[in-house]
Amino acid sequence: MNRAIFLDRDGTLNSDSRDYIKDLSDFRMFSFTPQALKILQKLGFKLILITNQSAIARGLTTQDEVEKIHEFLKKELLKSGVILDGIYLCPHHPDDNCLCRKPKTGNIFKAVNDFKIDTSKSYFIGDSEKDIETGAQAGCKTVLVQTGIDKKEETMNWRIAPDYIVENLLYAAKLIEEMESQ
Hints:
By secondary structure, the protein is α/β, with parallel strands linked by helices. It has helices spanning 33-42, 63-78, 106-115, 129-137, 169-180, and strands at 4-7, 46-52, 86-90, 123-126, 141-145, 164-166. The protein has one domain: HAD superfamily/HAD-like (Rossmann fold, 3-Layer(aba) Sandwich). It has 5 helices and 6 strands. A 6-stranded parallel beta sheet has the order 3-2-1-4-5-6.
């Protein structure tokens, strides 16, 4: 069985926006993202992106535009030798009650089946309560990064608390690297 790092996109790998990331001109990858993912990849984890993109259902962007963003992300990461093993997105509106929209775990379990992943040896890294719930419900350890829009949000009132809270994805990678070496 493989181990994975399940990653949220907006607010975790790149800057987020209350107005949604609608096209490539809105996309700003954090400078530390390639280095962080390289650390995790070297530890032997599959890198799997799990992202809600309701801007598609809202008519604010298209599936093609989101694919352009993901192609750009993959090319930028490849410059550092980092390969995203999978990208699973939910294009649905929150009211659609689909199984692939976080905090539901449909996309995680698609990836689990595709890559033969043991979630008990995997992590979910994200910037929101939905991300933490998703990871916990799937049986992953969870890491909250504080680079999202609501980074000062009070986690004590969350239904499910994160296992770890760190400043950003690079700190998350270093934390996981340290835990893996013990």
